[in-house]
Every structure is written in C-alpha cells, then in structure tokens.
Amino acid sequence: MPFRHSLISYYLIKEVFSIFFIGLLVFIFLFLIGKMFEIARLMVTHHVGIIVILKLLLYTIPYFLSIIIPTVAFMSPLLTTLRMSHDKEYIALKASGINPIRLFPPVIFFGFVCMVFTLFITSFGIPLGSGAARDLIFHLVRKDVEMAIKPGIFYNRLPRLIVYVENIKDDGLLEGVFLYNSQDEKTIIAQSGYISKGKLNFVFNLKRGYILQDKRDNQFGILSFETYNFSFNFPKNTGRRRKNPKEYTPWQLWKRIKKNEGDKTALILALNRKLSLPFAAFIFPILGACLGLIQFKRIPSGGIILAIFFFILYQICFSAAISLGKANILPPQIGPWLPNIGLLIAIFYFFRRLLHE
Q: What pLDDT does 3 receive?
C-alpha cells in the first residue's frame, strides 16, 4: 500500500511539473512575441542596440513571472486531474479503495514549490529587475527623449514639462504637438515639429502654432508663429530618481513603513501584494485539482468553465482591491488578501463536495 501511494504521488508530481514547465515556456514565448513590435520600433526608429533591448526584456521578465506563475500553477493540476477523470484513471483509483485525499499531498507540495518560487521573484527578482529597468530607461530618456514620448499619451516624467503628441512618423516627425511648461506657465501648440538633442538639453523645432502664456494682472497672451524652437535644459539633479515601492524587498518596505510618518498606503499595498501573490500560487493548484476531479454530470466541461470563471474573477477582484486600496476605500493591509480569502472559501466548498461524491 505505501508503495502504491508513493507511485501515485510520483506520477502526479511528474505530470503536474511537466505541464507547469511547458505552460511557463509557452507564456514566456507569447510575452516575447508581444514585445516584438516594441523591439522593432526601438531598433528602427530610435536606433537602440540589441544588448540594451535584451537587458530590458530580462529586467521585465520577473514582474511577468509573478503574474504568470499563479496562472500556470492553477492550470497544471487542473489539466492533470481533468485528464485523469477523462481517462477513467480517477474512477479506477477510487474503485481500488484509494481515498481522494491521497491525491492532494503531491498537489500541496507543488503549490508550496510555486509559492517559494513566486516569493523569491517578488522579494528579489522584481526589486532588482524593476530597479535596473527603470534606471536603464531613465538614462535612455536622458539621452533620447524622443524614445520616451509615445503618440496619444501625456508624458510628464520631465521636470516642469508635459508633452503630448498626436502622432509620430517613421522619420521622427511629430504631429499635433502640445507642450506645457509649468515654470513660466507657457502652453505651446504646434501642427508639427522635430526634436533635436544636445548633451544637456533637447530642442523642439516647431512649425505653425501658438504660444499661450499667463501674465500678471490676470492677463493672457497669445502669440502665433511659423517656426519656434523650444529648448529644455535638464536640471543638474536629473541623474537621480525616486524609487518605486515595488523596487524594495519586503523587509525594506517593512522598515520604511515603520519609519515613514506620512502617507504609507503605497508602501503597505506593495508589501501585501508581494506576499499575497505567492500565497495565491500556493492555493490555486489545490482549487485546480478539486475542479478537475469533481464529476459535473449536467455539464461535462464544468471544471474548465468554473476554472476560467474563478481565474477571471480573481484577476478582477485583485485589480479592484488594489485600486480601492490606493483610494483608501479598502484598508491596504486587507485589500490584496480578499481574493485569496475567496479562493479559500471556494476550495473548502469544492473539497467537501469531492469527499461526498
């Protein structure tokens, strides 16, 4: 009997991990395919080297994995147990007197491995990767502002300057340019223009537009132009930037929360997000195994439908909880954990139903 149980455990672990690694490779491949257009744009339009692009991809993979690992961890036991049910292997195991509970230790072990892997990524991979990526982009923008400006998006990362461009041609021509300089409250609107770069500044070479500027005594000045050169000088302290909360490790976030006397919402949310995602990677496999083993008589593919439903619901609830936490509607300590609590309730219900089949 112990030999039979160990053989079943070995079989389940082998099947689950095989599907997990295949799924992980597929998602990483899709991630790289999705970045191809952006890579081509950086190489052709902005002449960014392949080494820099590979670095950016490498730095962004940890954040991608922190989202994908719980997803693949959910799929792997689900597909394994669905195949067992479809091939009547689960029925044969029950007929031979094996309790369904015996099938869950390998799944729990798999979930524990996924939790540790995700925790390592959120604690070390994301802080290192995100920090390195932001540093690299920051210095690239310092050298090539045109690369950072994207059509249809307000760009406000430059000190005292907001930039908006309707369209960017392949030759670098800007169309529908909007600039706002908060230092002298000057708004510039132009039909088109180019960007020329220097070592310590860059210049918008604009054509056919208007300059709107607030003056004293509540007066407002409007000046039209055919050509106008707007120069922006980088401040001396531009080489330094503020860290994003996700660039800190959990213990660094904990220390900053203890020391910070101001608004701690972003720090608390970042800390709980780093901890709640690994826990989701632990409980998702258990729910997947339950849904795969339960026999839905009315709906043959009920397990897959419920799995898709729970996964979409989890993503919606998690995003909503983060947004509500940022708005201080939900306590930031609780918000990221609410979807996990919902998953635990679902696991309790379906596991109990599985035992009573």
A: 42
